[in-house]
Amino acid sequence: MESTGPDIHFLNVQYFFRLIYEMSLGRPDFSELALLAGTIWLIVTVLGYLLVIVLIGALMHYTTRIYQVRAAEASLYTTTTHEHLDDITDRSRWRHVQELINSGHESDWRQAIIEADIMLDEILMEQGYVGDTVSDKLKQVNPSRFGTLQDAWTAHKVRNDIAHQGSQYQLTEHTAHRTIAHYENVFREFGEV
Predict the structure, then answer these.
(1) Is 124 among the domain residues?
(2) Could you tell me which of 101, 84, 76 has the C-alpha nearest to residue 171?
(3) What distance in Å separates the CA atoms of residue 19 and residue 10, rounded to the nearest whole number?
(4) pLDDT-derived band of residue 35, with 50, 70 and 90 as boundaries?
(5) Are 182 and 125 found together in one domain?
(6) Are 33 and 19 in contact (CB under 8 A)?
(7) Does the global pTM surpass 0.90?
(8) Contacts of 10 (CB under 8 A, 6+ apart)
(9) Fewer CB within 10 Å: C terminus or N terminus of the chain?
């Protein structure tokens, strides 16, 4: 059976063995060997170019992805300014205290003062003061580092009177507002309101 198309020798394993056999006999056919080498080189070159194109595409994709991820993370890991911190600080507790103190009920005023004292305790803990009570923490405070220390003591004394005397303590609206004003002075010093 005769073939009508060109012979494809580089895919035939027997052809490779025949070339090796002929070389061992000393009768190599260099024209066929050169043709085979040229064909193999062409295939390797085409595959190399295709691989380079695929790798450049992958490099471009992953480089773009890295920049996208870095841009998304930039907002998470940047240093914030004091103005920005003021914007994002949760002021809901202080707003709640203000709502309570502005109500017309003495029980709400008492609750506002107790809530403000809890906030004072948290500020003292954040500043590194330790103790079982707010009084214990306030005793450790250096007045040169705490400009509103007297306000804190005055407000905390009213809170203690409310806590220890209960309903026996007569809390006037004026005293309640003045006490919350003392707490507010302390909170302003530490940037909490």
Answers:
(1) yes
(2) 101
(3) 11
(4) confident
(5) yes
(6) yes
(7) no
(8) 36, 39, 40
(9) N
Cα–Cα distance measured from residue 15 to residue 39, given in angstroms and rounded to the nearest whole number: 14
Per-residue pLDDT tens digits for 82-106: 665 555 555 688 899 999 999 988 9
Of 77, 103, 128, the residue at which a domain comes to its end is 77
Question: C-alpha 193: how far from its chain's center?
Answer: 25
Does residue 8 form part of some domain?
Answer: no
What percentage of the chain's residues is helix, strand, coil (to nearest 5)?
75, 0, 25
Output the six-digit token pair for 111. Answer: 């609750």
State the Cα–Cα distance between residues 120 and 182, nearest whole angstrom. 11
Which of helix, strand or coil describes residue 170?
A: coil
**Residue 2, domain member (yes or no):** no
- For residues 57 and 91, membership in a common domain is answered with no
pLDDT band at 20 (very low <50, low <70, confident <90, very high): confident
> Is there a contact between 175 and 158 (Cβ–Cβ < 8 Å)?
yes
Q: Which domain holds residue 46?
A: 13-77
